[in-house]
Specification:
- The protein is an alpha+beta fold.
- The chain has a domain at 86-177: Ribosomal Protein S8, Chain: A, domain 1, CATH 3.30.1370.
- The chain is built from five helices and four strands; from the N terminus they run αααβαβαββ.
- The protein has helices at residues 7-19, 23-36, 73-81, 97-113, 139-150; strands at 88-91, 118-122, 157-162, 172-177.
- The longest helix has 17 residues, at 97-113.
- The chain is rod-shaped.
- The N and C termini lie far apart (90 Å).
- 15% of the residues are buried.
């Protein structure tokens, strides 16, 4: 037979029972409280002159260009299989950096004016060179993506991809223009 509680123990146990809620009631109460939670009011707008020189607004940093998000899978498959037929070819072999840059700029201007879609840019394979001086083999190939990103035609370029081996592989690029 179990031991019976004495009067002090009964009083203590009564206080314990009074402080405990049933599990099911807790779940129901939690749901009802979460439904009643009011969203916090938005912060008050900051007045124009309220920011000090040290507390400047945070400006988001621009995201790096991501080639994989500029074209759909159809283009990726066509490029991988070599199914791209360029509308125009630009060959920058045997050009110095200045000549190559002006030829590229002019050809892109012409392609955009004619509403062409795919430009094949043959640069030659990138090799070791002095990037600071721009001398050595492969100088054009190593800076051409920077040129395209900074060019006046950058907004008209949808994507720049490595060419298929039948069009020059690592020594050439497809420049896909926006329609």
């Amino acid at each position: 037979m179990p031991r019976r509680l004495g009067p002090d123990e009964k009083a203590l146990w009564g206080r314990v029972i009074a402080s405990v809620e049933p599990i099911h009631a807790v779940k129901a109460k939690a749901k009802s409280e979460s439904a009643r939670v009011q969203p916090k009011p938005p912060h008050a707008p900051v007045k124009a002159g309220a920011l000090s020189a040290k507390a400047q607004p945070i400006r988001p940093t621009p995201l790096p260009a991501q080639e994989h998000k500029t074209l759909d899978g159809h283009w990726n498959r066509r490029i991988a299989k070599g199914g791209i037929v360029p509308d125009i070819n630009i060959d920058l072999h045997d050009s110095n950096l200045a000549t190559a840059h002006s030829r590229l700029d002019g050809a892109l201007e012409q392609a955009i004016a004619q509403k062409l879609k795919v430009v094949l840019l043959v640069t030659g394979k990138p090799r070791a060179h002095d990037r600071a001086s721009g001398e050595g083999r492969g100088a054009i190939a190593s800076v051409v993506r920077d040129w395209l990103a900074a060019s006046r035609h950058a907004k008209s370029i949808s994507a720049v991809r490595n060419a298929h081996s039948r069009h020059g592989g690592a020594g050439a690029l497809y420049i896909v223009l926006k329609s």
